[in-house]
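User: You have something folded?
Assistant:
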Amino acid sequence: MKRFLVRLTVIPIAVVLCLATGCVSRWRQDMRALEAEELKPLQWPGLKLVGLHQTEEDGFKSPTPQIVRCYRSTIPDEQAFALVLRAAEEQGWTEDKFVSTPQSRIAHKHTKNGSLQLTITSHQPGCEQYRLANFRISHIYG
């Protein structure tokens, strides 16, 4: 009888907690935090957005929340990096110059929700489905 009463108590508490928090998974909360901190603007002179994809929640072992924007660049890589990093720094991102390469830049931002990473690269991996893409900006949670 005690087990039955415990179940009757636990289930309503779980339902109330779920309703109070919006029944949102931790993954969804992280993705929303990432979307809120996404770099603006989405286009710059010489960088045309040609595609977008993001990870999706997939049960218990969902991939890390990530948003990838694929661009067609018509300007030199250094100029493209400078445009994007200038906007990023204005929005509170900090470039990690120790891991920069001629083909990529990394920046970080710490928020109350966690740590975010911005990867800017002139490599195509992650944008293969967009034939014209030759420049990529990825936002990663964690």
